[in-house]
């Protein structure tokens, strides 16, 4: 089916691929300057960010011509000029006035003439609409000017925030209103997507980021989330560019797996058995409280309480506040029902080892992957350098601003590489991404500096150009033990994992730049990490970054069959599940190393935001998955 949009000829602006619409970025960020585009006819589309209506002075009534029959009924125009409804109506007014003079008689009948004059249809007073629209291609919006005397349109159609508009017009110098350097005078409206104002979330005043999380399908229309999305896209491209330019091959690893790379992580189990059970057992008399997770309701109560407090502090209308209070009341009642249900429920425990998975889809237990590094190893041991990019899953119920259930990760594996090589690769990759953002996201970074964090650009520049300290786990513990001006919540001793608080002190306070910590105790790292000669530590590392924490983890993996087999037993893992992994040591083993970069945390660092839920398009957290 061919596009219904008109083809605009002789335009120096290239339209978007597969559409005749010109992206606003090509207009507002033109390399030749916006003034060079004056007089260009273009088609643009976007969503209304703000609007204003200015009433024009009413047109003076036209002079009545002689009551000649030829003038009373104007001839149809045979020219090429289009006429609109207003013009047609105005052209008929002399005819109506002629009839009034005939019916009303002389000036001695003013009452009759006044009555007849009131019957003449009066055209609505013309208005000029000033719309700021944005299509997501850049931070800035384009001013669109619509004269209702030329382009018939009503305020209710185009003024509400969120309205979608596609229009053809001519670029010109800006009017007195606004600070724009260029604007579009509309000649023709091609499409209007109206908005239900009372239901549109962004119709209200600026919403805080935590409230926007309830509308993940709408929040990309906000300037902040749109900028985050563009920065995320740039980092995505940069990640592929880094590895592709260094000879790595991109390998897609499975999302579902039978093995657990970490050996001690919480996993999501994938099964079809529950669906079959629910089909066989149809519950009767189920209440609203049945099947609802208590933690989900608690989280909902916290969010709705927060919303009520925000509405009380703001100047929102009373109807919205009353609705929010009523919603909170119903949620509290549901929580009481769940509490009553839980108290009356007998305590039972379902053990996975008592369930037969032979009838399951795969005929065995299978999980959403925690890491793709084990699968990457098999390709690294054949192709040399490989990497993968995709979602990883952890069934961790802990509430954290830095971790959610589904997070995207960049992983790499290198054959013939040792721990030192992996640490060098991690540092080079991190610096490359920092530099790429500064060089390729200038407009979005200006917005970030103005609205979110004034220090982001300086921090990225410093991390892209400075050298990083490398210390062992033992050295890190010694540094932390000597701290006297700060009391850590977790008691520090050798052999325990370093907490976020410990890592934050090292990167933010002690070194004040990224630091790489290596040679961790074997008990706190996965089974596949190579055991060091001391028998107590393993060849693993973490790159800790100020403001964020651990962004990259990596290791040299165990290439010795006997040592890996012993570690599998030490972690009490099922050897049958890892036979394929042991095969890589049986047949042509090689030293190899790799790393995992937390992509969402990298986006968090680049945008200056503080909660990872605000940089992931559709967040999956404990008790909540809206879309």
Write up what this structure looks like.
The chain is an alpha+beta fold and 627 residues long. It has 3 domains: 24-54 and 124-193, OB fold (Dihydrolipoamide Acetyltransferase, E2P) (Beta Barrel), CATH 2.40.50.140; 224-270 and 363-614, 2-Layer Sandwich (BirA Bifunctional Protein, domain 2), CATH 3.30.930.10; 308-354. Helix content is 36%, strand content 18%. The chain is built from 19 helices and 16 strands. The protein has helices spanning 24-28, 69-72, 85-104, 110-118, 155-158, 209-212, 223-244, 273-280, 294-313, 318-344, 373-383, 419-440, 442-451, 456-465, 473-481, 500-510, 561-570, 579-586, 599-607, and strands at residues 41-55, 127-134, 142-147, 164-172, 183-193, 249-250, 256-257, 269-270, 366-368, 385-393, 406-415, 469-472, 515-521, 537-545, 549-557, 592-598. Strands 6-10-11-16-15-14-13-12 form an 8-stranded mixed beta sheet, with helices on both faces. A hairpin with a 7-residue loop joins strand 2 (127-134) and strand 3 (142-147). Helix 7 (223-244) crosses helix 19. The longest helix is centred in the middle third of the chain and has 27 residues, at 318-344. It is elongated and about 115 Å long.
Strand and helix map with partners:
Blueprint: H1 24-28, E1 41-55, H2 69-72, H3 85-104, H4 110-118, E2 127-134, E3 142-147, H5 155-158, E4 164-172, E5 183-193, H6 209-212, H7 223-244, E6 249-250, E7 256-257, E8 269-270, H8 273-280, H9 294-313, H10 318-344, E9 366-368, H11 373-383, E10 385-393, E11 406-415, H12 419-440, H13 442-451, H14 456-465, E12 469-472, H15 473-481, H16 500-510, E13 515-521, E14 537-545, E15 549-557, H17 561-570, H18 579-586, E16 592-598, H19 599-607
Helix pairs in contact: 3-4, 7-12, 7-13, 7-19, 9-10, 12-14
